[in-house]
Amino acid sequence: MCGIVGYVGPRYATELIYNGLKRLEYRGYDSAGVAIIDETSGRITRRREVGKLDRLGQLLQEQPTNGHIGIGHTRWATHGAPSARNSHPHASMDGDVVVVHNGIVENYQELRAELQAEGVVFASDTDTEVIVHLIALYLNQGHGLPEATRLTVKHLKGSQAIVAMYAKSPDQLVAVRIGNAGGVTLGVGDGEMFVASDIPAILEHTRQMVFLESHQMAIVKADGYVVRTTDGVPAQLDIHDIPWDAVAAAKGEYDHFMQKEIFEQARTLTDTMRGRVDFENGRVRLPDLELSEDEAQGLERLIIVACGTSAYAGLIGKFLIEHLARLPVEIDYASEFRYRQPILNDRCAVLAITQSGETVDTLAALEEAWDTGARIWSIVNAIGSQAMRLADGYITMQAGPEIGVASTKAFTASIIDLYMLGLYLGELRGVLSPAELRQHVNALMALPDLAGRVLDHDDEYQALAEQLSGYKNFLYLGRGINYPIALEGALKLKEISYIHAEGYPAGEMKHGPIALIDETMPVLTIAIKDHVYDKMLSQIEQARARGAVVIAVATEGDEFIKEKADYVIYVPEVSEMLSPLVTVIPLQLLAYHVATLLNCDVDQPRNLAKSVTVE
Ligand code: F6R
Predict the structure, then answer these.
(1) DSSP tag of 516
(2) Which of 133, 181, 258, 342 has the fewest CB atoms within 10 Å of its CB?
(3) Ligand 1 centre and the CA of 310: distance in Å?
(4) Which residue from 612, 613, 614 has its CB within 8 A of the most atoms of ligand 1, so it is best to mutate?
(5) Domain annotation for the chain: domains and CATH numbers
(6) How far apart are CA 88 and CA 4, in angstroms?
(7) What is the pLDDT of residues 109-159, one digit of tens each?
(8) Percentage of the chain with pLDDT > 70?
(9) Which of 256, 261, 407, 495 gets mutated to test ligand 1 (max ligand atoms within 8 A of its CB)?
(10) Which atom of ligand 1 sits closest to the CA of residue 411?
């Protein structure tokens, strides 16, 4: 969840690291710090501050420090409250070694007691601090920084990403990755090297990236790097050329990243299809899935695992894939799947959907599928992430960096990926005829334009937000393929505006939630012209009869609904299967505007983090 940045090279490190942290602030933002080997004193200087990163920026101006090597960290507290003393980097007692860390040292209490017994005095309440004291002990025994770090990680239980720096070896950083607590990316520059937990932090400096695998460590110097396993065996890793544009990771003309990412969707939908949807021949190609026709025909079940918004995309995937490929689909929260001893075999495929590719529960769910014979797939946005590398086959979202903590464009990109997967499996399994396939492919062509038309009505969503921002509770109702959109609309509202919102399958309203409905609880319904339209109308009647203010997302041209609902949001007509891609956009924008009206921090909502790398 935390963000790490490191630099070694001819440039001054402080500002470069600070700017990298800014690009990672979405990962954690309760405190931050940097440590630099000061060029004049040769000693490590640390600057740490609680609160948002700007406060660290201010501190760095008041108390400047500079040198050509350093590490920085932005924190999402797990052990120890957010405070300057608990902020990273943590230092050894003599101040000569510092570490930044992502993950949890599960046995830290035991290690802390052992270290205290040896006379170590702790300066923080964190689990991380045991790491730096252990490294210092090994350094005092005469080991160099790489070996001291390697010996240290052998003591640690749990998943960790660590970067260590030592004043007496001022030309190197040591980075380690154990398990799935977050990535360690090396950026290869020209006579300089970068380390980061995520690509956007260093993308403005280099596109050449190397991703450490679990149980690997890197010794990073200005002129290059060496990778070894934590058992000391040399390892070779590919250098990936990352296509993301550094400009794409900046806010540009928008007030917030979330707003920018919502508006990007007209384009990202095209990007997601690019290279995979063959409009000319009416087909879909997913070569990275590594699936033959025989294998596709032998599949008996697909199990989708994901968390949060990605899980809601998975619910839509169930509709799409069952319909298009006649393959039974189960969907489970990754955090539940991993603990329920799922029944898997070589006739199953397990598909993880994950924007970050680093969500610890989702990765653990994939691990659960190892050795069962099941095929492992991922739908993933972050290129080179664990979820991509662990899978037998993958489909990238191609949505570009998503910085706003609340997921938007990755959600719609995942739905396109799932639609393409449905079509691809439908063809390979002989379910879809070439004519049907072509028809479905053609339907995709209009989508970016339809999304653009929805976005054009943003001022209406803003006006509606002004009417609704005073309410404290909302009920979102949807049916069929738009039931997950009710869940997603409610999640967007609650996570960025802190207003309580429930998403519900509309038919279930009368089995309980209806008791909540009165004039204080607006009911937002997705009531487009689909095969359950009439049923939605009767649910709207029932909500109105209890005094609720009703908002309906409806199909353009539906005049009748105006008589039933207090407010109508029109979306263009589109096939039922693709409708979630247009119905979700107004709900994203509604949540966005309500949150900004309430002065909430849209891009960095409280208590949340972009990549959830702890359980
Ligand atoms: C909600 C949100 C989260 C993520 C979830 C999974 O807006 O962003 O619910 O969808 O944490 O994250 P990924 O897709 O990175 O695995």
Answers:
(1) G
(2) 342
(3) 6
(4) 612
(5) 3-249 (3.60.20.10), 257-445 (3.40.50.10490), 455-597 (3.40.50.10490)
(6) 10
(7) 999 999 999 999 999 999 999 999 999 999 999 999 999 999 999 999 888
(8) 97
(9) 407
(10) 10
Q: Which residues are catalytic?
A: 2, 610
Q: CA-to-CA distance for 379 and 393, rounded, in angstroms?
A: 9
Cβ distance 185 to 205 under 8 Å? no
Of 27-31, 277-281, 288-292, give the range with the top mean pLDDT. 288-292
> Which atom number of ligand 1 is nearest to the Cα of residue 406?
7
Measure the CA–CA gap between 96 and 131, rounded to whole angstroms. Answer: 14
Q: Give me the helix-helix angle, 434-445 and 447-455, nearest 10°.
A: 30
What is the CA(610)–ligand 1 centre distance, in A?
A: 7
Residue 446, φ and ψ in degrees, nearest 5 = -80, -15
* Structure-block tokens of residue 24: 């990672």
Q: What are the residues whose beta carbons fall under 8 Å from the beta carbon of 531, sequence distance 6 or more?
A: 480, 576
Residue 495 near ligand 1, beta carbon < 6 Å: yes
Task: Assess whether the C-beta atom of 335 lies below 6 angstroms from ligand 1.
Answer: no
Taking the centre of ligand 1 as the mean of its atom positions, its distance from the CA of residue 116, in whole angstroms, is 39
Three-state SS string over 192-215 comes to: CEEEECCHHHCCCCCCEEEECCCC
408 lines ligand 1 (CB under 6 A): no
Residue with CA closest to ligand 1 atom 5: 308
Other C-beta atoms closer than 10 Å to the C-beta of 346 total 13
Task: Count Cβ atoms below 10 Å from residue 334 Cβ, excluding itself.
Answer: 26
DSSP letter string, 93-139: TTS-EEEEEEE--TTHHHHHHHHHHTT----SS-STHHHHHHHHHHH
pLDDT in tens, 558-577: 999 999 999 999 999 999 99
Judge if the upstream peptide bond of residue 89 is cis by omega within 30 degrees of 0. yes
Identify which of 382, 417, 412, 416 has the alpha carbon closest to the alpha carbon of residue 400.
Answer: 382
Radius of gyration of the chain, Cα coordinates, nearest whole angstrom: 25
Q: Tell how far CA 257 is from the center of its chain.
A: 14
Residue 613's pLDDT is what? 67
Please tell me the residue having the least CA distance from ligand 1 atom 10: 309
